[in-house]
Amino acid sequence: MAQPSRSIDHLLAYSMFPVWAGAILMLLIVIALAQVPAAQRVEERRMEEHLQRVIRAVQNDIGAMNAFTRDWGIWDQSYHFLAHPNQAYINSNLLVDTPMRDFELNVLSYMDLQGSEIWTRTLLPDAPDADTTLLPSFLDDLKLQL
């Protein structure tokens, strides 16, 4: 049985296959070359956002540690002050309102083991529309009780 001869259209189509494959491959390469830099930019932007979040978290931790050291750092040498009262400690630590306001204290008193007063400071509470002259002398009462 004789094989029918192929038409010129089939031969032309088969000969164009490598050309079409090359064109599609080149199109894919151009698309990839266009998308790789865009993907790198997206990755860099996400990395920068992540680093900014990390920086904010570290700064928040540093702020919390600074607040902690501000709150407790002034008390680190309190035992030295109890043993040897000095004016420098009083000026730098006890004459500011920050510790008392932070801990919401109205009376801060240093006393030795015998009950003798070394240093006492009072801070009247912030009460709007209150006449502070009518407040009782609670420090005198406290001294009497001790």
Explain this structure.
The chain has 146 residues and is mainly alpha-helical. Helices cover 64% and strands 8% of the residues. It has 5 helices and 2 strands, in the order ααααββα. Strands 1-2 form a two-stranded antiparallel sheet. The longest helix has 66 residues. The chain is rod-shaped, with a radius of gyration of 41 Å.
Keywords:
single chain; 146 residues; mainly alpha; two-stranded antiparallel sheet; rod-shaped
Topology:
Layout: H1 8-73, H2 78-83, H3 87-94, H4 98-102, E1 107-111, E2 117-122, H5 138-145
Antiparallel strand pairs: 1-2
Structural shape: rod-shaped
Task: Report low-confidence residues grouped into runs of 5 or more.
Answer: none
| Content-based structural category | mainly alpha
- Helix and strand element order: HHHHEEH
Strand content: 5-15%
Kindly, what is the distance between the CA atoms of the first and last residues, rounded to a whole number of angstroms?
127 Å
Helix count, per DSSP? 5
Main sheet strand line-up: 1-2
Can I get a quick summary?
The protein has 146 residues and is mainly alpha-helical. Helix content is 64%, strand content 8%.
